[in-house]
Amino acid sequence: MVNEDMDECKFNISDCDVNANCTNTYGSYKCTCKVGYNGDGRSCSVTTIYIFCYTFCNDKRNYMTMGHKNDKVKNL
């Protein structure tokens, strides 16, 4: 009898956080938070928040944006 390993990562049936990488292991899988996130892999939260301030020359208003370096920029 041959034991085949199911790749939980490939079939998207792991419970890894959306901000984690899934690594298949024989008989199981491992979740590891992506760079910039912290946690156990099943729950990952942002560890670094970048704040950017800049001025638009046309209307002289200051805008501030905030987010993780890999996220889409959000105006505050």
Terminal Cα span? 60 Å
- Helical percentage: under 10%
List segments where confidence is low: pLDDT < 50 over at least 5 consecutive residues.
56-60, 72-76
Q: What is the name of the CATH architecture? A: Ribbon
Q: How does the helix and strand content classify structurally?
A: mainly beta
Q: Sketch the major β-sheet.
A: 3 strands, antiparallel
GO molecular function: calcium ion binding
Keywords: Disulfide bond, EGF-like domain, Repeat, Signal
Domain EGF-like: 5-45
Protein name: EGF-like domain-containing protein
Summarize the structure.
With 76 residues, this protein is an all-beta fold. 0% of the residues lie in helices and 42% in strands.
Structural notes for this entry:
0% of the residues lie in helices and 42% in strands. With 76 residues, it is mainly beta. The strands form 3 sheets. Strands 5-6-7 form a 3-stranded antiparallel sheet, with no helix packed on it. It starts with 19 loop residues before the first strand and ends with a strand. The protein is built from no helices and 7 strands. The protein has a single domain, classed as Laminin, CATH 2.10.25. The chain has strands at 20-25, 28-33, 37-39, 44-46, 50-55, 62-67, 74-75. The radius of gyration is 19 Å and the shape is elongated. It comes from Pocillopora damicornis (Cauliflower coral).
